[in-house]
């Protein structure tokens, strides 16, 4: 039996039933293929992002800077406008899945995933999250439902977030200073996202996986504030913005919008940090500036 007959070529692709113009991010199509031995594409350029996940086999991917020999459990992301080529092995050709995506935010999203133009390859993928999500996009598009467009975007984010997790695990911060900075940055991001909710320092530490005493110590060393004080100042700053921009909101509504349910406590803390009450601050905004 010839090697080609052992690896009979298959090809299947499904396109997004929704046509996009000037959208920030969207999936164009998704497919899968068993390639023939020495199946080759390029050198060529694409005008969209094209992500391949290799399920079986071996082959070579060539970017403008590097040559990568890739096997099962690897991904390679082709960036638009970059000259690339890729070819399956002569004896053990690739079976892979692929998705294409584009949009004004596609480059930023790809870079944030870690799969930038300087690092377009991801290896040692042990979990099936990425191939399963890629298959789900193709299956959704085959239904021809317009809702599959929204579903595909969710799956795309899932794929790229998994890539980011894998890459961050392979390239961890080194040294105590880097670890401290990473922890403090995580706390700041957590508070910035959760300040409108009843944030508990205990729950935050548990969610981020840090000991409370350790986190409080390094946070104060880096910011000169305890996490509790930082959160309060963040809430007061956000409330000042609401007092300026939303005059129709009552003081109680402003306080609740920044995660403080006790309006009296909010007013006391606002005056302590800003030198005047929320009401006085709002009134001062309406006074004309002396010429």
Q: What value does the average pLDDT take?
A: 88
Major beta sheet summary? 6 strands, antiparallel
The CATH architecture assignment of the largest domain turns out to be Sandwich
Query: Number of DSSP helices?
Result: 11
Q: What are the secondary-structure elements, in order, as H or E?
A: HEEEEEEEEEHEHHHHHHHHH
User: How many domain regions?
Assistant: 2
Query: Helical residue percent?
Result: 40-55%
- If you consult CATH, what is the topology of the largest domain? Jelly Rolls
What is the element layout, followed by pairings?
Layout lengths: L2 H4 L3 E6 L10 E9 L5 E5 L4 E8 L1 E5 L4 E5 L2 E5 L5 E5 L6 E8 L3 H8 L7 E2 L6 H14 L4 H24 L5 H19 L6 H8 L3 H12 L3 H19 L5 H7 L5 H12 L3 H9 L5
Antiparallel strand pairs: 1-2, 2-9, 3-8, 4-7, 4-9, 5-6, 5-8, 7-10
InterPro entries: AraC-bd, Homeodomain-like_sf, HTH-like, HTH_AraC, HTH_AraC-typ_CS
Protein name: Multiple sugar metabolism operon regulatory protein
Organism: Paenibacillus pini JCM 16418
């Amino acid at each position: 039996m010839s090697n080609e007959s052992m690896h009979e070529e298959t090809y299947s692709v499904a396109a997004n039933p929704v046509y996009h113009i000037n959208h920030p991010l969207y999936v164009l199509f998704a497919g899968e293929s068993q390639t023939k031995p020495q199946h080759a594409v390029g050198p060529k350029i694409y005008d969209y992002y094209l992500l391949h996940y290799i399920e079986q086999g071996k082959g070579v991917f060539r970017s403008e800077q590097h040559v990568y020999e890739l096997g099962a459990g690897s991904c390679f992301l082709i960036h638009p406008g970059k000259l690339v080529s890729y070819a399956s092995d002569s004896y053990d050709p690739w079976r892979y899945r692929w998705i294409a995506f584009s949009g004004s935010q596609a480059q930023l999203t790809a870079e944030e995933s870690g799969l930038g133009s300087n690092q377009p390859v991801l290896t040692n993928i042990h979990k099936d999250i990425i191939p399963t999500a890629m298959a789900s996009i193709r299956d959704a598009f085959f239904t021809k439902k317009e809702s599959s467009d929204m579903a595909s975007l969710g799956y795309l984010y899932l794929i790229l977030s998994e890539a980011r997790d894998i890459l961050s695990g392979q390239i961890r911060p080194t040294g105590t200073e880097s670890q401290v900075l990473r922890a403090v940055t995580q706390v700041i991001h957590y508070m910035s996202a959760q300040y409108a909710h009843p944030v508990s320092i205990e729950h935050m530490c548990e969610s981020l996986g840090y000991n409370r005493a350790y986190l409080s110590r390094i946070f104060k060393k880096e910011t000169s504030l305890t996490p509790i004080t930082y959160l309060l100042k963040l809430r007061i700053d956000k409330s000042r913005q609401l007092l300026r921009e939303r005059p129709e909101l009552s003081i109680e509504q402003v306080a609740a919008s920044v995660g403080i349910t006790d309006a009296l406590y909010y007013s006391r803390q606002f005056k302590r940090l800003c030198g005047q009450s929320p009401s006085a601050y709002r009134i001062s905004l309406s006074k004309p500036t002396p010429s």
